[in-house]
Design goal:
The structure holds two protein chains of two kinds.
Chain A (H helix, E strand, L loop, with lengths): L3 E4 L5 H4 L3 H26 L13 H9 L7 E3 L5 H7 L3 H8 L34 H14 L6 E6 L6 H12 L4 E7 L2 E2 L2 E2 H4 L16 E5 L3 H16 L5 E6 L18 H8 L3 H11 L5 H24 L18
Parallel strand pairs in A: 1-7, 2-3, 3-4, 4-8, 7-8
Antiparallel strand pairs in A: 5-6
Chain B lengths: L2 E3 H15 L3 E5 L15 H5 L4 E3 L4 H13 L3 E6 L9 H8 L2 H4 L9 E6 L14 H5 L5 E3 L4 H12 L5 E6 L6 E3 L13 E4 L4 E5 L2 H15 L4 E5 L2 E3 L3 H11 L2 E8 L4 H13 L8 E5 L8 H7 L3 H9 L3
Parallel strand pairs in B: 2-3, 2-4, 4-5, 5-7, 6-7, 10-11, 10-13, 13-14
Antiparallel strand pairs in B: 1-8, 6-12, 9-11
Classes of the chains: A alpha/beta, B alpha/beta.
The complex binds thiamine diphosphate.
């Protein structure tokens, strides 16, 4: 069965089977992602890191989609923007900062790899290379492995709208469709690939329609609506786990910050456009929902804010005090060595 | 003589090509409003419009493949691949198509395509953003590969590339864009396949290309303080390779150090050494030395990265081992 759907109505958390604790935890992780991002810009501007890539605006799709996984057991292939995904899966703020600062104790790569190329062995977060979309075939292969081994693991792979132009995207989806693999493809469509707007990236309005060509369902959701994202991802995960094959989820969102520290976004978008999206901030949206449902008040919200800032500052302190990789280790990890 | 940056020299030459020939157009990722990842095409969209300056989807294979097609269709495309690392996604089109169309059609199809791309590390951009792969492409018959180290050479080589009927890989270096140098107002070209002596010396020849030319020049200054005069030969073109200029220099100095930023094993420097052994063996007073990048994917950590890229001190040490 092949369908393309566009979902715009927000389900309630109760209808989705989410508890108040779930919601508050998701909200806290979203705020942590935001606070870490803000700190990363400061570190980059202060010359402590050469490069920053952050996720402001994407926290809704990232955290809520990851929440629908069996976190730590399902396989996750994030892309460089997925700070919110890795935090939701269980990476700590300190681990993120060790990565940004390229320290020896960085669990992602021991200071070898660029920030945002997430890897965490215990959490089943799988690293990729920098060329966009190249993680998509890997996800198909990991899903193939779990299917052949008779495991119930689901593989979630993340990427941007720009990545949907790459050959690897099309080849990966086709492969997953043909083999009915337990994969959830999650596209964070923020309307731009660096400066190139969606209209120059694809001649279709909703990228989810692409799934039909590969024989599985595609769903477009409002990526700034955490509950809608959670609902769509959970269904996709259930389908995958039940052996019904892949789903493609397109979550429409917006990147509130520049692409990376190497970008000047004023060259290709207006401050008014950014401002308009700021008013649709996924964190504000979830906050409003929590308040409406009496799950959060001002005092509790401020307490969450304070905890989050403290966690970030502690992470920076610990990471900065952590040693750099040993110069003697420079040539390690090129070829496999026993022991 | 007016001074331009390397970036400006390339941009001005692209502007000239767009003005001179309406078959020329530019295609690439983020080359429009954004002006290219390294700012080379800034302003060209506003000046020439979307028909001539085309932002394209992130798909290197179609950028080059459609570039080949447009060239076969009578246009003269200049495709920008954001970095040479991503050229690998188009490597089938480059190696199996662009380089071979002329041959495989028995000389009937030309592919006047320029692929501009960026090599090199040193920006802390990690393993898949920092490679030097121009030597790989130089191995393929049917491709010309140029690698300017100065604004003068960038302009002159790009003019020659624009006039070519053979596909040209035009390889720039990410750390050279702000480098300033003279570019005359009068029209000139730098022929593809001609190396250039960037510094005259009598004691040793240092052969390099792209940013390593500047590392070699810096090393030469340090050596001069100790009374060793190094001659620096800038390859400028990897294919065709100007073996005459290399060997004339080595026959004069009787010693050679070959420097490259990329990996040593199978690196382009080995080709240069082989040419020296073939032509200048009897003139050598010492074995030829090589300086190359460490055999490791480029690390992100600053200290590890610095240790992986040849520095002037490495070149100085190599020279001293010979004299
Ligand atoms: C194959 C390849 N080409 C080009 C790039 C350079 N690049 C890095 S990110 C990016 C834009 C990606 O946009 P999108 O997939 O929409 O994700 P977003 O950054 O907007 O979240 C580009 C072109 C790359 N990393 N890989």
């Amino acid at each position: 069965m092949t369908t393309t759907e566009r979902r715009l109505r927000t389900p309630t958390h109760e209808a989705l089977g989410l508890t108040a604790d779930d919601l508050l935890s998701m909200y806290t992780v979203m705020r942590l992602a935001r606070a870490l991002a803000e700190r990363m810009w400061l570190l980059q501007r202060g010359g402590k890191t050469p490069f920053a890539v952050t996720a402001e605006g994407h926290e809704g799709v990232q955290v809520a989609s990851a929440w629908a996984l069996d976190r730590g057991r399902d396989m996750v292939l994030p892309y460089y923007r997925d700070l919110g995904v890795v935090l939701a899966v269980g990476m700590s703020a300190k681990e993120v900062m060790l990565n940004a600062l390229g320290r020896a104790a960085d669990p992602n790569s021991g200071g070898r790899q660029l920030p945002g190329h997430w890897f965490h062995a215990e959490l089943n977060i799988v690293s990729g290379s920098s060329p966009v979309a190249t993680q998509i075939p890997h996800a198909a292969g990991i899903a193939l492995a779990s299917k052949l081994r008779g495991e119930e693991t689901v593989t979630a792979v993340y990427f941007g709208d720009g990545a949907t132009s790459a050959g690897d995207f099309h080849e990966g989806l086709n492969f997953a469709g043909v083999h009915r693999l337990p994969v959830v493809f999650i596209c964070e469509n923020n309307g731009y690939a660096i400066s190139v707007p969606s209209s120059k990236q694809a001649a279709v309005e909703d990228l989810a329609v692409r799934a039909a060509g590969y024989g599985f369902p595609g769903v477009t959701v409002d990526g700034n609506d955490a509950l809608a994202v959670y609902g769509a991802t959970r269904e996709a995960v259930e389908r995958a786990r039940a052996g019904e094959g892949p789903t493609f989820i397109e979550a429409k969102t917006y990147r509130l910050a520049p692409h990376t520290s190497a970008d000047d976004d004023r060259l290709y978008r207006s401050p008014e456009e950014v401002e308009a999206w700021r008013r649709r901030d996924p964190i504000e949206r979830l906050r409003a929902y929590l308040i409406e449902w009496d799950l959060l008040d001002k005092r509790k919200d401020e307490a969450i804010g304070a905890t989050v800032v403290e966690e970030v500052e502690e992470a920076v302190r610990l990471a900065e005090a952590s040693p750099e990789p040993e110069p003697e280790s420079a040539l390690q990890h090129v070829f496999y060595e026993k022991g | 003589m007016p001074e331009l940056t390397y970036r400006e020299a390339i941009r001005e030459t692209l502007r000239e090509a767009l003005n001179n020939d309406n078959r020329v157009f530019l295609m690439g990722e983020d080359i429009g409003a954004y002006g290219g990842a390294y700012g080379v095409t800034q302003g060209l969209l506003a000046e020439f419009g979307e028909q001539r300056v085309k932002d394209s989807p992130i798909a290197e294979s179609v950028l080059v493949g459609a570039g080949i097609g447009a060239a076969m269709g009578g246009l003269r495309p200049i495709v920008e691949l954001m970095t040479i690392n991503f050229s690998l996604l188009a490597s089938d089109q480059i190696v199996n198509a662009a380089a071979k169309m002329l041959f495989m059609s028995g000389g009937q199809i030309t592919v006047p395509l320029i692929i501009r791309t960026v090599s090199g590390g040193g920006n802390q951009l990690g393993a898949s953003h920092s490679q030097c792969l121009e030597g790989w492409y130089a191995q393929v018959p049917g491709l010309k590969v140029v690698s300017p180290s100065t604004p003068y050479d960038a302009c002159g080589l790009l003019r020659s590339a624009v006039a070519e009927e053979t596909p040209v890989m035009f390889v720039e270096h990410s750390l050279l864009y702000n480098f300033r140098g003279p570019v005359p107002d009068e029209y000139y070209t730098v022929p593809i396949g001609e190396a250039d002596v960037k510094r005259v010396g009598s004691d040793v020849t240092i052969v390099a290309h792209l940013r390593m030319v500047h590392v070699a020049l810096q090393a030469a200054e340090e050596l001069a303080e100790e009374g060793i005069e190094a001659e620096v030969v800038d390859l400028r073109s990897l294919r065709p390779l100007d073996t005459d200029t290399i060997n004339e220099s080595v026959m004069k100095t009787n010693r050679a150090v070959v420097v490259e930023e990329g990996w040593k094993t199978g690196g382009f420097g080995a080709e240069v050494v082989s040419s020296i052994m073939e032509h200048s063996f009897d003139y050598l007073d010492a074995p030829v030395a090589r300086v190359a990048g460490q055999e490791v994917p480029m690390p992100y950590n600053r200290d590890l990265e610095q240790a992986a890229i040849p520095r002037p001190g490495d070149v100085v040490a190599a020279v001293k081992s010979l004299v």
